[in-house]
Amino acid sequence: MSRNRFREIKRNLHLVDKKDAPHTLDKMFKVRKLCDILIKKFNQWGVFHENLSIDESMVKYFGHHPAKQFIRGKPIRYGYKN
C-alpha cells in the first residue's frame, strides 16, 4: 500500500462520533469502543491458564497527546504503555 493511500484511509477512518467528545473525561475515548469489542472477543476465544504472564511494552510516540507517558531511565522514554 502506498504512503498516500494509507494517509487517505487514516484521514477518513473514524471510530466514534465527535458529538460524544465534550461529554467524557476519558483520554482514549476515540478508540474505547473498539478496545471493548476486542477485549470481549479475546476473552471469548482466548485460552487462559493460571500461570499466564503478560509483559508490558512501550510504543514510541513523540507527538502531543494527553495519554502519552514519560518514564525516565528507559530505552523508550516517551510513548504509550501497552
Automatic annotation (TrEMBL):
Cross-referenced Pfam families: DDE_Tnp_1_7 (PF13843)
Top-rank taxon, per record: Eukaryota
GO molecular function terms attached to this record: sequence-specific DNA binding
Domain PiggyBac transposable element-derived protein: 1-81
UniProt-recorded name of the protein: PiggyBac transposable element-derived protein domain-containing protein
Organism encoding this protein: Euphydryas editha
